[in-house]
Amino acid sequence: MTEILRIEGLQKRFGGLVATDNVTLDVHTGEIHALIGPNGAGKSTLINQLCGELRQDAGVIHLAGRDISHMPAHERVDLGLGRTFQVTSLLEDFTVRENVGLAVQARDGGNFRVFDRVTARRSVWEETDHLLAGSLLNDRRDSRAADLSHGEKKQLELILALATQPRLLLLDEPMAGLGHVETQQMIETLSGLRGELSMLLVEHDMEAVFALADRISVLVYGQIIMTGTADEVRSDPRVREAYLGTEDA
Amino acid sequence: MRKLILPVLLIAIFALMPLIAELVGKNALMTLSARILMYAMAAASLNLILGYGGMVSFGHAAYFGVGAYVVGILYSHWMSEVPIFGLFPGSNQLLVTLPIAMIVSGLAALLIGALSLRTGGVQFIMITLAFAQMIFFLFVSLTAYGGEDGIIIRRANAVPGLNMRDKTTVYYVILVVAVLYFAWLWRVVNSSFGQVLKGIRQNERRMEAMGIATFRYKLYAFVLAGMGAGLAGALMANFLRFTSPDMMHWTKSGELIIMVILGGLGTFFGPILGAAAFLILEFYLADWTEHWQLGLGIILLLVVLFTKGGILGAVDRLKGGRQ
Amino acid sequence: MILILEQLLNGLQYGVMLFLLAAGLTLIFGIMGVINLAHGSLYMIGAFAGTWVATTTGSFWLGIPAGLIAAALVGFLVEATVIRKLYARDHLDQVLATFALILIFNQMIILIFGRQPIFTPLPEVFYGSIEIIPGLFYPPYRLLIIAVGLLVAVGLYFLINRTRVGMLVRAGSTNRDMVRALGVDVRLLYTVVFGLGALLAGLAGYMTGPILAVQVGMGEDILLATFVVVVIGGVGSIKGAFVAGIGLGVVDTMLRAFLPTILRGFMAPSDADAIGASVSSMGIFLLMAIVLLIRPKGLFAAGG
Ligand SMILES: Nc1ncnc2c1ncn2[C@@H]1O[C@H](COP(=O)(O)OP(=O)(O)O)[C@@H](O)[C@H]1O
Ligand SMILES: [Mg+2]
């Protein structure tokens, strides 16, 4: 199996609006596949269908050859599908360490135990500290998530997703709102993960997309208008017209 | 060590209450103290779902009442020696009735929770309220068990080796059960499950993205909470030697929420302090005017509109201010 | 057959009452996101104020504006002093604050009117009963209630579907931010909606006076049934409130009227009466459970 993700004819309507229109797409194993498109194109809606938060009206989703179209969100996570949120979605009252710890614990199991002490689960906290040690948040581990800067929250989003040990990571605009330095850091973090897992990367920052992506798909008004390499996308007149033409000089 | 100060202090106060009541010659104090213990248990069980889990259940008195009725019904069948449904014998043994009360109220919570937790937000509040009221009506219409008047229990349940005719003995039995219950609750909120529950309160969507099937955990907490309230209700039936549908009237559910809020939502000792504050207030206000609920209403309104975090929150702020 | 028709009319009458209350409640939920337990208090205030004016002046008709005005005034007052502070709060604070209002209003009514129920004098036109169809005699006052309820339903339909305010209300119940984005004075809209809800509650309260006793606690009993209506109809949906209100009114009335008799066919009369009474008082809640199993958001959920 060379495709970790295969989507066929995915359709989602919100009333009269077709947010994703017959989307067919695949992500190769080990690949970083970028999904670009103007605001409102349906990128987040697509991500939400993939992870099971939204139910598609039509179409099928295969993860590593397995049909997950009708699987609840939490089961997809067990099969190795991780995601980050465009608008950061954290456990705001918990510290960074507690956030990551709970993500590790969630994957590790034993979540119904009522008689253990969560602070005494050594394997969970060792893994948590290991994840944090290799991250930019190591010094912030005891800060409340609510007190983090925007850039730090974006980093935590990513670590939480990684803690579930995904095979395929769905990233919804991980660089949105980041400054130049933070963006570079995020690019580095993501490229450091190359080879370990596959990614579907939704991003507006073209520099980041061109730096990271093996292939790029372009979504406009809910439809994939093309998929190709960075060069192919750059030179495609349809893309220039629909997307780059409006933003890029 | 410092963590132990408050629990030890609380246990000491409650343990000394019968003596104090005798010293000042006010028996009502022991009754008040017992009521605080039992309502604290019920409020704490509500706090598990409301404070730690973020589920605004407005029907928690139902499980309290079901627990009380289990004791009453078992007692009346034990008296009449007629088996329940012709199958199960009645009982007057506390060590039998308490577990059964917990099981039955847990089952009620399982049924109601499984339906109510399919929704959220205002619907959840209204549905839990409505189902609790349905149980209220169920008991009102059970004429075999006294209907609106309820069941009179001549004698508190027996415990081998104890003289349960003595009010003070009953009081200490309640105290022991309450201490055990709070010790258990302490384990729960600090367990793996407790951590998941706290996570769900903060951000259910995130928990789903971590692979947690939130519905199951919420339901589990809902059932545990129902069992706790049932236990408290079973004790109440023994203490009052009486059960009636009034115990599960929806205003009682409101009062339980008030206790949780007064003490401090999602704090471990909050429900104890909240129950104490509420019942002491009621005790003195009701002594003073029959319109004490007017005072309660005004205080509650002011607390909700102008304070945050209840009694424990205020204490924290005071501490913070001093530092 | 006549008996069934008569009970159907009774159910319809109860149903429109539920609708009057549920319409306001569901709009307040839908548009402001506020759960208002004190809605039943407005119903009670309408009943007491109207009945008091009616008994002192001796005119039933003068009671109507009195009940409406009192409920609306208290409604505006409550909105301005309490509810407005709750829009941005979570549901728990809303529940507690409006629960506090119930306690306060109940005690104030007791202080003013005492605990004894009072009764609304009915004008002579409404005495006796009239023959609607051959053999079916029915009290004209109940017919009046049905007529008023249906008129209000039609009026609300036009208000919601044909006016600017209605457009905002509809927009507001599906997308609150959009209304704000349109540059509408949201605060004014909220006050208007709350006032309208209070008005309908007051109307329902006064109209029920001659049928049920006007007493403290009357608001809470019907509030719970109203919640069931709102949940079944779908939060925020007037149409849902209408359908569910009438439906529940009829189901509840029919169960109470006929279930014990039906059960007597199978079991001892005393058992039949007990079980019949219990099942019929639980009937609407069971219905709610069934609807929720099939449609967790209610029959006509707004938005989603
Ligand atoms: N829950 C929803 N209900 C109705 N419309 C929605 C919903 N979510 C997204 N939309 C609409 O679907 C379109 C695609 O949105 P989205 O997927 O967020 O776009 P993108 O992430 O590409 O910017 C937009 O027009 C948006 O307004
Ligand atoms: Mg997006």
How would you describe the overall organization of this protein?
The complex is a heterotrimer of chains A (249), B (323) and C (304). Chain A is 37% helix and 25% strand. Chain A is an alpha/beta fold and 249 residues long. Chain A has a single domain (3-244), classed as Rossmann fold. In chain A, strand 1 (3-14) and strand 2 (17-28) form a beta hairpin. The longest helix of chain A is centred in the middle third of the chain and has 14 residues, at 150-163. In chain A, 45% of the residues are buried. Chain B is mostly helical and 323 residues long. Chain B has one domain (2-249). Helices cover 74% and strands 1% of the residues of chain B. Chain B has helices at residues 2-23, 28-52, 61-80, 94-116, 121-141, 167-189, 192-202, 204-209, 214-240, 250-263, 270-288, 292-306, 310-322, and strands at 151-152, 242-243. Chain B has a two-stranded antiparallel ribbon with strand order 1-2. With 304 residues, chain C is mainly α. Chain C has a single domain (2-123, 140-294), classed as ABC transporter involved in vitamin B12 uptake, BtuC, CATH 1.10.3470. Chain C has helices at 2-32, 39-57, 60-86, 91-113, 140-162, 164-174, 176-181, 186-208, 218-233, 238-264, 269-294, and strands at residues 130-133, 136-138. In chain C, strands 1-2 form a two-stranded antiparallel sheet. In chain C, helix 1 runs antiparallel to helix 10 (238-264). The longest helix of chain C has 31 residues, at 2-32. Chains in contact: A-B, B-C. At the B-C interface, helix 5, helix 10 and helix 12 of B face helix 4, helix 9 and helix 11 of C. Bound molecules: adenosine-5'-diphosphate and magnesium ion. Adenosine-5'-diphosphate is lined by residues 14, 17, 19, 37, 39-45 of chain A.
